[in-house]
Amino acid sequence: MVENKSEPDFPQRQDCEECNRLWTTYTLATRQQLEAIVAQEAALQTGDVEKIKALKEAAVEAGRSKALARKAVWDHAATHAKTKLQGQG
Ligand SMILES: [Zn+2]
């Protein structure tokens, strides 16, 4: 998991509640995915097939949630891009 390196900076607006909310959701989803992957790798050491399978599914599901959260962030950010507040603020 090295994708954080290429992750572009989110054009977050500190004064936008929706930006903050979506970004928080994305951050939490990212953390949950990492935790799921760590748990899965820890389970691999135990050789518990059922546990590994369950955790693998959890990791996939967490990755899906993260992708959705990321899309929501960027979809929302795009609305800012269209309505640039030039010369304001
Ligand atoms: Zn916003």
Descriptive overview:
The chain has 89 residues and is mainly α. The protein has one domain. The chain contains two helices and no strands. It has helices at residues 17-46, 49-82. Helix 1 packs antiparallel against helix 2. Residues 1-7 have low confidence and may be disordered. The structure holds zinc ion.
The gyration radius over C-alpha positions equals: 17 Å
Number of domains: 1
Q: Flag low-confidence runs.
A: 1-7
The coarse silhouette is elongated
Highlighted features:
0% strand, single chain, mainly alpha, 2 helices, binds zinc ion, 89 residues
Give a brief outline of the structure.
By secondary structure, the protein is mainly α. It has one domain (16-82).
Question: Mind sketching the topology for me?
Answer:
Elements: H1 17-46, H2 49-82
The chain binds zinc ion.
Residues 13, 16, 18-19, 76, 80 line the site of zinc ion.
